[in-house]
Write a structure and sequence with these properties.
- This protein is mainly α.
- It is built from four helices and no strands.
- The longest helix is centred in the middle third of the chain and has 20 residues, at 38-57.
- It is globular, with a radius of gyration of 12 Å.
């Protein structure tokens, strides 16, 4: 199980963050099973980080929360290699 779940970030408050997390997790699992190319996961990671950045600009996430999320998701991404 993952530390952060998409349902913990509802679209009413966090817009696309939960959706970006779900996409990332889906592609992460497919990448682990060698069903998709790592480039798809790379795009999903970039979209997720972009969404995190926007939630900071909107002030729905603090800088500390955003950094914690980036470190966590970056670690999951790096574990694929």
């Amino acid at each position: 199980m993952y530390k952060y779940m998409p349902q913990d970030f509802p679209p009413e408050k966090y817009l696309t963050l939960g959706e970006a997390m779900a996409d990332f997790y889906n592609l992460l699992e497919k990448c682990r099973r060698k069903e998709v190319n790592i480039l798809f996961l790379d795009k999903a990671k970039n979209d997720l980080f972009f969404s995190i950045k926007h939630r900071v600009v909107e002030r729905t996430l603090s800088l500390e929360q955003a950094e914690e999320l980036r470190v966590y998701f970056g670690g999951l991404y790096n574990d694929i290699y």
